[in-house]
Design brief:
The chain is mainly alpha-helical. It has 4 helices and no strands. Helix 2 runs antiparallel to helix 3 and helix 3 packs antiparallel against helix 4. The protein is elongated and about 50 Å long. Keywords: Membrane, Transmembrane, Transmembrane helix. It comes from Streptomyces nogalater.
């Protein structure tokens, strides 16, 4: 797996979490700029999903199993967009909290993907 891509995605997710956490601390909902940040993180997760599938197609084998690896790839891809849609429904500070939590979850999923692949 591409370790640099995992690192960049995890750091971007933590930055998004800190940014939305700061907005929640200031009692603000998610704003357009937050959605741009979510889009950037989502694109990174999409690139990682495609790279993981390509690695598997080329014969790469995760140490802890292909099924769990693919499940974590799909979960990491869906995490931030799902939180973004939830924050649209909750236009209070709790929408920002939801996106901040999703950023932390994505960062943890990145560490777990690294571990599953055999890093």
């Amino acid at each position: 797996m591409l370790n640099a891509l995992m690192l960049v995605t995890g750091v971007a997710a933590l930055l998004l979490a800190a940014w939305c956490g700061w907005a929640a601390y200031r009692d603000q909902p998610t704003k357009d700029w937050h959605f741009i940040g979510m889009a950037v993180v989502s694109v990174l997760a999409l690139v990682q999903l495609v790279a993981g599938i390509v690695q598997l197609a080329r014969g790469g084998k995760p140490e802890q199993g292909t099924t769990i690896f693919v499940a974590y790839l799909l979960g990491s891809f869906a995490c931030v967009p799902a939180a973004g849609f939830m924050s649209l429904a909750e236009r209070t500070r709790w929408g920002s909290v939801t996106v901040a939590a999703a950023g932390v979850v994505l960062a943890v999923l990145e560490v777990r993907l690294y571990d599953i692949w055999g890093g």
